[in-house]
Amino acid sequence: MNPNDISPIIREKAPLILAEIQKAKNILLHCHPSPDPDSVCSALAMRLALEQLGKKAIVIKGDSDKIPEEFMHFPGADTIVMKNISEINLSEFDLFIILDSGSPEMISYKAPPVFPMPLRTIVIDHHASNKMYGDLNLVDICSATAFVLYQLFVLWKIELTHDISLNLFIGLYTDSGGLKYSPADYRIFEVAAVLVKNSPDFVQAIFKMENSLHKEAIYYEALALSSVETFLGDNIAIASVSSQQLVAKGIDVSFTHTDIPNMLKSVIGWNIGMTIIEREPGHIKVSMRSRDVEKFDVSKLALALGGGGHKAAAGTRIMGVTLDVAKKLVVSKAKELYNL
Ligand SMILES: [Mn+2]
Question: Both 14 and 162 in a single domain?
């Protein structure tokens, strides 16, 4: 990547973040609830970079019961500490680098930490909806947190080892939908080229991740796809699954993170694809994808419902209501927001 192509905001914040790191002794990193590869790989790559800077850092698993099995081959995944933020002693740390998390609920929705926290906090993210809640915030709206980290590491002169490169590549590749989601540009291909040169086993790593499905994931897809309903002149397609249905089929909620909203929005005329999943009674997770980000910016809908995300991909949680009530709420908000 040509040094001139590094984002101005990253160039501006890189020395400030490095100064905070140099002051710190023990650094905390986390995976966000329902972690995706960008969350896990960014945390792992940052931990390795911090080690090069002579710092002690740990990655905690966060809210999820466990890290998905298909992520456990990411370099360093075996070092993830199986704790949530409420289960660790924060006074043992002097810096918390919060990656890929637009709001405190993305650190933990079970027990969102209160800001300002007793330790220094740095937020590094790529979501437009980021609430800038850290002591220091670096938010560059781009393809992946891994892409922001790559630029920081170049500026900090971190050696892009195999393990750092593979983690960054997996984060960038997955969060950009295979280097194609908006706002993809030529820079991510240049960065991807450098990263895979340093980690030629990327093909096997991506294969392992994409081909480690459990049968429950397929059973879930069947349930979700057979539930599809359309609303507001077919503009919105919703797949919804209740916790009772999940339990009856023996499907753990960890199997509900699939690409159903994307599949739905790929249908001509279905401008927003959505899943509304009752993870457990009173806990509804909504994931949305848009096929027309100008007319149907889903980050607005997610924000109106207490969540956040990007124009093309966003989500929220709705607590304390039934699946039907949540569905009606989402549809009525969409009707209002998009004048349908
Ligand atoms: Mn991300």
Answer: yes
Q: Is there a single domain that holds both residue 242 and residue 205? A: no
Domain boundary among the residues 179, 210, 241 is at 210
Q: Ligand 1 centre and the CA of 301: distance in Å?
A: 19
State in Å: Cα 144 to ligand 1 middle. 5
Peptide linkage before 116 cis (omega within 30 of 0): yes
Measure CA of the first residue to CA of the last residue in the chain; give whole Å.
44
Tell how far the Cα of 11 is from the centroid of ligand 1, in angstroms. Answer: 20
In degrees rounded to 5, what are phi and psi of residue 207?
A: -60, -45
Peptide bond between residue 33 and the one before it cis (omega within 30 degrees of 0): no
Task: Supply the DSSP symbol for 5.
Answer: G
For residues 106 and 254, what is the distance between their CA atoms, to the nearest angstrom? Answer: 16
CA-based nearest residue to 30, from 59, 71, 64: 59
**Percent of the chain scored above 70 by pLDDT?**
100
Strand 95-99 vs strand 26-30: parallel, antiparallel, or unpaired? parallel
- The last residue of a domain, from among 210, 225, 255: 210
Place of tokens 């002693």: 89
Helices and strands (H, E) in the chain, number of each type: 11, 11
Q: Place 66 in a pLDDT band, splitting at 50, 70 and 90.
A: confident
**Helix segments in the chain, DSSP class H:** 8-23, 37-52, 145-155, 162-175, 186-198, 202-210, 215-226, 243-248, 260-265, 298-304, 323-337
pTM comes to 0.87
150 shares its domain with 21: yes
Same domain, 289 and 196: no
Q: What is the pLDDT of residue 258?
A: 78
Distance 244 CA to ligand 1 centre (A): 30
Residues having C-beta closer than 5 Å to ion ligand 1: 38, 100, 145, 175
> For the chain, how many structural domains are there in total?
2
- The verdict on 181 and 243 lying in the same domain is no
